[in-house]
Amino acid sequence: MSTTDTDAASPASASPTAESRTRDALVVGEDGLARCSWSASDAEYRRYHDEEWGRPQHDPRALYEKMCLEGFQAGLSWITILRRRPAFREVFHGFDPESVARMTERDVERLLQDERVIRHRGKIEATISNARAVLALDVPLEELMWGFAPAATPTRPRAWSEVPAVTPESTAMSKELRKRGFRFVGPTTMYALMQSTGMVDDHFEGCFRA
């Protein structure tokens, strides 16, 4: 794996460790609702968990945005990305692929000085090149990505050790996207995208959103 395509994990798809295997899957909030425990540490995490994570997302612009933000997460925590998302949306023209595709090296240099976003040249350049890859597709982005969504499973995870970081479907999606010129789309990053866009639903058994 090259330094320009480091993989990442979403809040609930980190590889199991000794700590995660014993960590509670659920936490009950002050409102009396049981939630996936990864959402308990921050109010923005709770909002994201309750309103976005795991809900089916089919909008092409939103899927492109999620791809880019998951790529920016590589090596960082997801809360870091959530807190910067308004600035990301501002500087990348609402993640409209046609607008982002027109960005130039001058824009890259400007963003490398913008403290509101992640100042990583490779990730910034990948966001622009991925927009161009979206425009070059011979199938809609939604159709391409959702074509790798696995069949729904009858059971939900009950423990952190039951949540994978990589699946055959995310590996296949990664391979196809890379073949089509996309960057920062490693298998773990793509599984995180599958979780966040509802292609898979990894809310723990007992979570009120399950």
Break the fold down into its secondary structure elements and pairings.
Layout (H helix, E strand, L loop, with lengths): L17 H5 L3 E3 L5 E3 L6 H9 L8 H14 L4 H14 L5 H5 L3 H7 L9 H15 L5 H6 L21 H12 L7 H10 L14
Task: Explain what you see.
Its EC number is 3.2.2.20. Zn(2+) binds at residues 36, 49, 203, 207. The chain has helices spanning 18-22, 43-51, 60-73, 78-91, 97-101, 105-111, 121-135, 141-146, 168-179, 187-196; strands at residues 26-28, 34-36. It has ten helices and two strands, in the order H-E-E-H-H-H-H-H-H-H-H-H. The chain is globular. Strands 1-2 form a two-stranded antiparallel ribbon. Helix 3 (60-73) crosses helix 4 and helix 9 (168-179) packs across helix 10. It is mainly alpha-helical. Residues 14-21 have low confidence and may be disordered.
Lateral arrangement of strands in the main beta sheet: 1-2
Gyration radius over CA:
17 Å
Which of globular, elongated, flat, extended, rod-shaped describes the shape? globular
How many strand segments?
2
Uncertain runs with pLDDT below 50, 5 residues or more? Answer: 14-21
Main β-sheet description: 2 strands, antiparallel
Q: What class, by secondary structure content?
A: mainly alpha
Give the overall pLDDT as a whole number: 91
* Range of helix content: 40-55%
First-last Cα distance: 34 Å
Q: H/E order of the elements?
A: HEEHHHHHHHHH
Tell me what portion of residues adopts beta-strand conformation.
under 5%
The number of distinct helices, counting runs of at least 4 residues, comes to: 10
